[in-house]
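Hi support team,

I submitted a single chain yesterday and got back a structure, but I'm not sure I'm reading the token output correctly. Could someone confirm the output below corresponds to the sequence I sent? I've pasted both exactly as they appear in my results page.

Thanks,
R.
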Amino acid sequence: MPRATLALVRALAAGWRPAVCLLVVACAGPPPTAPSHVLRDSSAPVPAATGRTAAGPGASAVPADSSVPGQAPAGSDHPDETSPVPEDSPSRSADLSRPGRASLAPDSPHVPEDSPAPGRSPPAHDPEHGRPAPPVPKAISPVGPPPPGLVDLRAELPGACFDVRYATADNFTGAVLPGYAAAGAWLRPRPAGALAKVQAAVSAEGLTLLVYDAYRPARASLAMVEWAERSGRRRLVDDGYIARRSGHNRGDTVDLTLARPGTCEPLDMGTAWDHFGPESHYARAGGDALSHRRQLRRVMQAQGFTPYDKEWWHFTFRDPDAAALDVSYQPAP
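Hi R., thanks for writing in. Yes, this is the structure output for that exact sequence:
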């Protein structure tokens, strides 16, 4: 019989209760070892226990001093400063879709909210109205002096604007017209004097004249007709929009509109200059466009100009001494 059991029997026989304690101590084995989270066949080392916080039930087997992917490091003052997540980590896509985070498409570039969208340029801005800024008057090369019988409107109309399109390719033919080697604008003296009075009148109303064309060399009118026939637009000649012989050739007819001084921005007239169609007929407009057409016609007629109903921009001052000419505009020597 084992000695511990024999001692127990003797104690019980003697009535010594403390013997029960000896039995507990004698039968008790060594204290059980806490189960490790590392499997017996795993080669991963067991992290040291120093400096850790005790984990509660159900806690993950992640060391307390390591960072969880997608979470802020312990002690960080900025919760948004997350630890880096490996590109191939499955937690990357899951983290981006968690509530409270912006969901981003994979590899999508970050564009600040105040930046233009990729591929777009910032629009020109008018600080006052939030619209594209109006055009700035163009600088032109000096034009040679007019021949006898004609005067230069740039000298006669202080403050007026000029946009002589026939000296550029920006016209209905798509090319510079013959006779317009320079962007000149001439008229006979009497129509020019009357137009100077119109300029003074509109200036008093806070506006200015914008001249598109004045005297026109005869060769330019013939080139217009040739263009219409060559391009299958003979109808423009038959309908009275293009003429073989024009009042412009005599130097007593002018194409123009009203504009804002300084910027030379034209008022809304319903159509562009040289728009060949019913919309350009004087009465074929409404709202502000019709009001501006009436304003232009009123100030021109007040100084003796006759309008042309098919073209709201076309006005003639009948000068009995005028005759057709074919003198070209040339740059100043």
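A quick pointer for reading it: The two ends are 140 Å apart (CA to CA). Let us know if anything else looks off.

Best,
Support desk
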